[in-house]
Amino acid sequence: MRRREFIKTVVLSATWxxxxxxxxxxxPAIGFLSxxxxxxxxxxxxAFRKGLAEHGIVEGQNVSVDYSWADSHYERLxxxxxxxxxxxxxxxxxxxxxxxxxxxxAATHTTPIVAVFIGDPVVSGFVASLSRPGGxxxxxxxxxxxxxxxxxxxxxxxxxxxxxxxxxxxxxxxTSASQRKDIEEAARTVGLSxxxxxAKSDPELDAAFKSIVENRIPALLVxxxxxxAAARDRLAELAALNGIPAIYSLRESVVSGGLMSYGNxxxxxxxxxxxxxxxxxxxARPADLPVLQPTKFEFVLNRKAAKxxxxxxxxxVLSIVDEVIE
Length: 326
What we know:
The chain is of the alpha/beta class. The chain is 43% helix and 18% strand. The strands form two sheets. A seven-stranded mixed beta sheet has the order 7-6-8-9-10-11-12, sandwiched between helices. β9, α10 and β10 (260-264) form a beta-alpha-beta unit. α3 crosses α4 (98-107) and α5 (144-158) packs across α6 (176-190). It is elongated. The termini are far apart.
């Protein structure tokens, strides 16, 4: 081998590891940070990609997407956000709850962020206003606070005569305080009292249901939270074993055997996130993109779960069900 060729080979060999991590020339990257898990979010990622495609952005063709999943371990989010930002993405997508949004917002004041908000993003300090966010972050507000009264009303409809309900909260979530306040106000609206139970792990879920049974709480509200979403199978199992009618925020909980859910159409929320991420990749600024509010809601009922709980679902409730799972 000639000396010049040898030097060229050594130089190229030294740069191969760097080239393996580099973004392809001209192809921007999207960082995707989620408090949830990859397995349970496959259909949501599909919806996100659909939103990208609506604006001509196709993963693997004209953009790359780096995914990072916390698997409901909030303490991992900060390091994961730093890792994604070190790759200099054109936009950082933050999903899975307000904790993810908080970590993303703290990690960068310059990289554009598109987030799913559980609470009010103005009250939480993420944006200046819904119409003019004003900073480097925008997204979709799930407005779960607005529909807690609807969920509680549905519990009362399927379990007539109840005067109290239980409500789970994850004490590790930054939205737990606002969720408590929203649920208390919703309960007053529909004429119910509420007893709160905290859980951030499977053993604490077991303890919460033990308390529900001991205190003869007849029904349960499970609000939006990444841990509750990941624990949906266990929640459905505990509710069935203890004969507790429960309502959830996500359709997936009903598919897992839960009684019913009422909430935003989550895949559509992720589609909207995809549309905003695509627009930012193409040059839009988060400050100029209004925080979107979902317009699609779904009420899902599991007929088998209702039968196992000995419930007769009123005709009025059945008439407004969007989907019945047999």
